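[retry 2/3] Cyclic nucleotide-binding domain-containing protein: previous attempt timed out, resubmitting with same input.
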Amino acid sequence: MNAPVTTSMPRALPAEHRQRLMALAHEVAFPQGTRLFDEGGRAERFWVIRTGTVDLDMRVPGRRPAVIDSLGHNELVGWSWLFAPHIWHLGAEAATPLRAYEFDAAEVRALCKADPEFGLNVTQWVGDVLAQRLRAARTRLLDLYAPYGSGGMR
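[retry 2/3] Cyclic nucleotide-binding domain-containing protein: success.
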């Protein structure tokens, strides 16, 4: 039996790599309702949540943006910063007052390039987050817009 994939940073990266990444962190705080980024914008930074929640949303033509996932403690906010062309694929808004660690994407990408082992671990972590978010988005959008909800995965 395989262990469940963990996408929260404390367990997703080896301790040495987690420490190297955290050395680049800056503590930030945002009031409720702050837009961290909008779909289509430049992905120049990312965050790991300390306290609070962030809603991820997707533009839906003719409707309000659909919230497709909510993130909390120790979760990664943003993955588009790692993959060219570094454009956000979703939007994100602080659903509650938010405290987070903020990272400069170019700085982290440079560290990934300089240390391939570190880069591989970061890429695997972010890839696992991406896979989890795609599954959540699919389920949420089916629940919102399919005639009978998501039902079972086929």
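[retry 2/3] Cyclic nucleotide-binding domain-containing protein: Residues 46 and 57 are 16 Å apart (CA to CA).
[retry 2/3] clearing retry counter.
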